[in-house]
Write a structure and sequence with these properties.
The chain has 7 helices and 5 strands. By secondary structure, it is α/β, with parallel strands linked by helices. The protein has one domain (about 1-195): Rossmann fold, CATH 3.40.50.360. Strand 1 (about 1-5), helix 1 (about 10-25) and strand 2 form a beta-alpha-beta unit. The protein is globular.
């Protein structure tokens, strides 16, 4: 499964994910894609409900569809992600970290951290990350994203096995004009598909 975490439709993260998905399909693998921007994920309200009732979140819609206030899709998205056999996250790097909508989802995984008695153990299922960034420089440009991704993925049962860092992709369609980076995405995907 792919989780595309860019708020921008057709941007570099989505383009990278689509290149990788095509490679995986060519390798005979089934691919599902979830676009985070298609879901409503409210930020954590720090209400403490998950501390009292591990696994629960006050922002979830109940299964009857009756919700006081805003309907939230986080529980459904978490269920899809946890059911996946493997995961590739495609997320742009914003100011050395994950974009706000994805960070909201990361924060909402608090319900699983509480349930695990505050222990983040690596999961068994493979996960990978495609991380396009606008900047060309920055020794630790991808560190913030990776530091957030590892425990988040572990809470969902995954272990981050590898990532591909792509620099210099600031414009919305920058990847399309960089055949060298498109080839890097293909090569990386074929390598992880054979792993």
């Amino acid at each position: 499964m792919f989780l595309v975490a860019s708020p921008r439709a057709g941007g570099n993260s989505e383009q990278a994910a689509r290149i990788a998905a095509a490679c995986l399909r060519e390798a005979g693998l089934s691919v599902e894609m979830r676009l985070l921007r298609d879901y409503t994920v409210a930020p954590c309200a720090a209400c403490g409900l998950c501390s009292r009732l591990p696994g629960m979140c006050a922002l979830d819609a109940d299964r009857s569809g009756r919700v006081p206030g805003k309907v939230d899709d986080a529980a459904d998205l978490f269920a899809d992600l946890r059911a996946a056999n493997g995961l590739i996250v495609a997320a742009p790097v914003y100011f050395y970290g994950l974009p706000a909508p994805f960070k909201a989802l990361v924060d909402r995984s608090q319900r699983y951290w509480i349930r695990s008695e505050n222990a983040v153990l690596p999961g068994a299922k493979p996960a990978y990350a495609l991380l396009p960034a606008g900047r060309m420089r920055g020794e630790r440009l991808f560190d913030g994203s990776l530091l957030s991704l590892r425990p988040f993925l572990a809470l969902l049962g995954f272990h981050l096995q590898d990532h591909l860092a792509l620099r210099g992709l600031d414009a919305a369609d920058a990847l399309a004009g960089r055949p060298d980076l498109c080839a890097q995405v293909r090569d990386w995907t074929l390598r992880i598909a054979g792993a």
